[in-house]
Amino acid sequence: MHMNPLVPELYCSDIATSLNFYCNILGFSIVYDRPEAKFAFIQREGVQLMIEELTDKDRKWLSGPLEQPFGRGANLQMTTTAIDTLYEKLRAQDIPFFMEIEEKWYRREHDTVGNRQFVVQDPDGYLLRFSETIGTKPNA
């Protein structure tokens, strides 16, 4: 199994709810899990996440109180393919969008890259930004 150099671990309030959202709605799959620890390592199109229910507060790495929404101040951008299909799947399941789908162009050093993207919140409030590259063009 390949593990990416950076794999965020997200604490959740209910592992079953989070796994349902990530796997059954967003299309992640469980690579491995430890049900006794309420932990799962999941992935989708190369994106890897660890999800763990906040149970034994003495063993958690928390720098301060963890209050809803857990993801304040951060969003996780995930590159995806077929973004319109994913967007419509979420819309059909009445998943609320934090930011509706948009086309956005970002300037880089020598060019500008275009993305179609949208943002949803997971059950604990983490912001998930799904993005598909639609092209590049030279800077003017």
- N-to-C span: 43 Å
Order of helices and strands: EHEEEEHEEE
Average pLDDT rating: 93
Specify the structural class.
alpha/beta
Strand content: 35-45%
Q: What level of helicity do the residues show?
A: 10-25%
Which secondary structure elements does this structure contain, and how are they paired or packed?
Layout: E1 9-12, H1 15-25, E2 29-34, E3 39-44, E4 47-53, E5 75-79, H2 83-92, E6 97-107, E7 111-121, E8 127-138
Parallel strand pairs: 1-4, 5-8
Antiparallel strand pairs: 2-3, 3-4, 6-7, 7-8
Description:
The protein has 140 residues and is an alpha/beta fold. 15% of the residues lie in helices and 44% in strands. It has two helices and eight strands. It has helices at residues 15-25, 83-92, and strands at residues 9-12, 29-34, 39-44, 47-53, 75-79, 97-107, 111-121, 127-138. The protein has a four-stranded mixed beta sheet with strand order 1-4-3-2, with helices on one face. The protein has a four-stranded mixed beta sheet with strand order 5-8-7-6. The chain starts with 8 loop residues before the first strand and ends with a strand.
